[in-house]
Design a protein that fits this description.
- The chain is of the alpha/beta class.
- The chain is built from eleven helices and eight strands.
- It has a five-stranded parallel beta sheet.
- The longest helix has 33 residues.
- It starts with a strand and ends in a 45-residue tail after the last helix.
Length: 332
């Protein structure tokens, strides 16, 4: 009898998971309650908690012995909680947060070699989940016990964030100087990139590639989860906080479904933003004088959760009395 599976969460990731598990010989179950394996990926902590712990969540409806594989970005504390609840519920839980090696590729999920899973759980659970994880990602790293996978993913996210933002700001500096000092000329030599990811980001910005399967919404979810993990450990991460605020700004003006390379548009001309469907008047309404702050439409940025995705506030532009307005980041 072939193994059955179900997927719950983000449609883009779900399509990728279904295609690869079907190719492996799995069959899709009618619903999660009938599946031998359930794979989840949510871009908000609230949605993830609902998927597992709601009245009709997986902990309640899954049959005993069901393998639960969570690819979502979350926190070590949530992963440990889920593992403990699964154990007493006769379920098998594995955390395996998904990371994207090159997040600015248009088809970021198409090539499994562009995907990494940080797997954690007990030895038997990891052995049961390995066929699924190896079908989904080109690299599966065993990180240890419950919580270790989410901690590894958080560390990966923080390093990825730093490379993306630094490359974009370096490019913005070159562009701004050329605009303000024409004597430099358009053929000024650039220093180039300092890492393969930075090179990919600079290429995407230079070519105007701002769309892709891996979105700002996903990036925000990962960064929010990393910040929540730091908050749980009483650690402040100013660089990550600043990056999250920039991403929030991009989301406010309509960029939540774009690739992270679209962050470069925040530093550019308003006309370039408009060409990409971004609307700065939304920022004026959210952050301008007398604004009440951004509130997302419906359930948040995406179809499975709220804005930011961390379940609590890390602040926001309106929480900073000296915030100079969106014009500080843009030439518009």
């Amino acid at each position: 009898m072939r193994e059955s599976f179900a997927f719950v969460g983000n449609e883009t990731v779900g399509s990728m998971v279904e295609e690869r598990l079907v190719a492996l010989g799995y069959v899709r179950a009618k619903d999660a309650g009938d599946a031998g394996t359930v794979v989840t990926y949510c871009t908000s902590q609230t949605a993830l908690e609902d998927v597992y712990f709601d009245e009709d969540g997986l902990v309640q409806i899954a049959a005993k012995g069901t393998l639960l594989v969570d690819l979502s970005p979350s926190t070590p504390s949530f992963a440990r909680e889920l593992g403990a609840v699964a154990t007493v519920s006769d379920l098998v839980a594995v955390e395996a947060p998904l990371a994207v090696v090159d997040p600015v590729r248009a088809d970021a999920f198409a090539d499994k070699e562009n995907l990494v899973c940080f797997a954690a759980g007990d030895e038997d659970a990891l052995a049961a989940a390995r066929p699924v994880l190896e079908a989904v990602a080109g690299t599966v790293r065993d990180m240890g016990g419950a919580g270790a996978g989410q901690l590894a993913r958080a560390a990966w996210t923080l390093q990825t964030m730093a490379q993306i933002v630094s490359a974009i700001e370096a490019d913005a500096l070159y562009r701004a100087v050329r605009r303000s000092a024409p004597s430099f000329g358009q053929d000024i030599l650039r220093v180039g990139s300092v890492s393969p990811l930075a090179e990919s980001v600079l290429a995407a910005v230079g070519e105007g590639r701002f769309g892709g399967d891996y979105t700002v919404e996903m990036f925000m979810a990962e960064l929010s989860a990393a910040l929540t993990a730091a908050d749980d450990a009483d650690l402040i991460l100013p660089q990550a906080e600043a990056c999250l605020h920039l991403l929030e700004l991009l989301a406010v003006i309509g960029g939540s479904d774009k690739a992270p390379s679209a962050l470069a548009l925040v530093y550019g001309e308003e006309s370039a933003c408009a060409e990409q469907g971004l609307d700065w008047t939304r920022a004026e309404a959210a952050f301008g004088e007398g604004g009440e702050g951004y509130e997302s439409d419906g359930d948040g940025f995406g179809d499975d959760g709220d804005a930011g995705g961390c379940g609590h506030s890390h602040g926001g532009y309106r929480d900073y009395p000296d915030y100079p307005g969106y014009g500080a980041y843009s030439a518009n």
